[in-house]
Amino acid sequence: MAIRTVYIEPHSPEWHKFRANGVGGSEIGTVLGSQFNEYGSRIKMFYEKIGAVKPNQEPSEVMMHGSYMEDYIESWWKYFDGDIESTMRNKQLGNQIRKCRKVNGYIVNDKYPWLFASPDRMIVKGQRGLIENPNGDLMFGDNLDDGGILEFKTVNGFVARKYVATGGIPLYQIVQLQQYMTILEINYGEFAVLEDGRHFYVAPMEFNKALSDRIIEESHDFYVNHVVPARELYQEYVSEYMKGNKSSAERIQSRINSLEPDVDSSETTREFISSRFNEVKESIQGDDVLLTQSIEYKRLSKLIKKLSERKDTVYNRLLNVCVHNECQKVELPGGGYYKAFKRDGGKNYQLTFSAIKHKSIDEADDIAETL
């Protein structure tokens, strides 16, 4: 086993080629599906990786702002001790608490050659990690013998409220950090977050083996079992098409189609599929499989409407309990609780739930699979 760093000039031709030959942390949420990244598209990424579709290689305005803000966020993280008030004092006094270092390249692990990591920073070995105390506040824990991974994020308050159940961190960023921990074989990482350009906080995260196993399995299936053979076929397709062998090219395209990953539910996927639409035939004869899927779509549409109404009603009832009792937190049997809070500038109070366990919650995914 070898973990090594590959040094490549960012945004150079070699950089783009390297990224095409694997799955990066910013892509793993898309590979895992729209439940992890509602803005990604697995099928679109598939065609980008095989070379049939040119990916957007120019950094967006948001990405550029985020990159330039990294040093600023780092300047706050160095003084963070779990409490923002004391962090501000530390910063004013120049009392640096922890250290991190830059990684100028991509990190790869021979165990998972189709994956790569490009963390924003590495927490230096021997620094202290953060843990949550019984009151839900952060405090220092043990020293990190292997160091840790540090990711910097700038977020919009509206987006953070959308992901309140995961501490304001979107799921695609959570699996990104888990992929980095998997590749570097490190058990700890942190998000240092600047929200709306004016609120700083840190969210620690431990290694999750179940999620790591899923990342390894599904990324391997996507890249090794789908992208690699389809890329070879696409080269054959281009060759036949350029020779004018239309029928041969169509047969190869059909084989590529069979290697497409499962279609996910994202709007980006719908847009991508629509962009490839080429109406040649007025109609085709569907089969029983398509009839079953059409019936399922109509049935699920009705169920979703009813379930959404029920979910919102229960949520409002729980929030109303806090109002009636003039309290922020409701302790529940079994050690779980829920809390009401309102972010600065927010219109409504939100609820966050913690440590609530019941077999019906665990069975929800199984029930959903049968719908």
Describe this structure in words.
The protein is α+β, with helices and mostly antiparallel strands. The longest helix is centred in the C-terminal third of the chain and has 38 residues. It has a 5-stranded mixed β-sheet with strand order 2-4-7-8-9, with helices on both faces. A 3-stranded antiparallel β-sheet has the order 10-11-12, covered by helices on one side. It has a two-stranded antiparallel ribbon with strand order 1-3.
Brief summary:
The chain has helices at residues 13-20, 25-32, 42-49, 61-77, 84-93, 157-162, 171-184, 209-242, 246-258, 267-275, 288-325, 359-362, 364-370; strands spanning 3-6, 100-102, 106-109, 121-123, 128-132, 138-143, 148-155, 188-195, 199-206, 329-331, 337-341, 350-354. With 371 residues, it is α+β, with helices and mostly antiparallel strands. A hairpin with an 8-residue loop joins strand 11 (337-341) and strand 12.
Supply the key terms.
single chain; 371 residues; alpha+beta; five-stranded mixed beta sheet; three-stranded antiparallel beta sheet; 13 helices; 12 strands; globular
SSE layout and pairing:
Elements: E1 3-6, H1 13-20, H2 25-32, H3 42-49, H4 61-77, H5 84-93, E2 100-102, E3 106-109, E4 121-123, E5 128-132, E6 138-143, E7 148-155, H6 157-162, H7 171-184, E8 188-195, E9 199-206, H8 209-242, H9 246-258, H10 267-275, H11 288-325, E10 329-331, E11 337-341, E12 350-354, H12 359-362, H13 364-370
Parallel strand pairs: 7-8
Antiparallel strand pairs: 1-3, 2-4, 4-7, 5-6, 8-9, 10-11, 11-12
Helix pairs in contact: 2-7, 7-8, 8-9
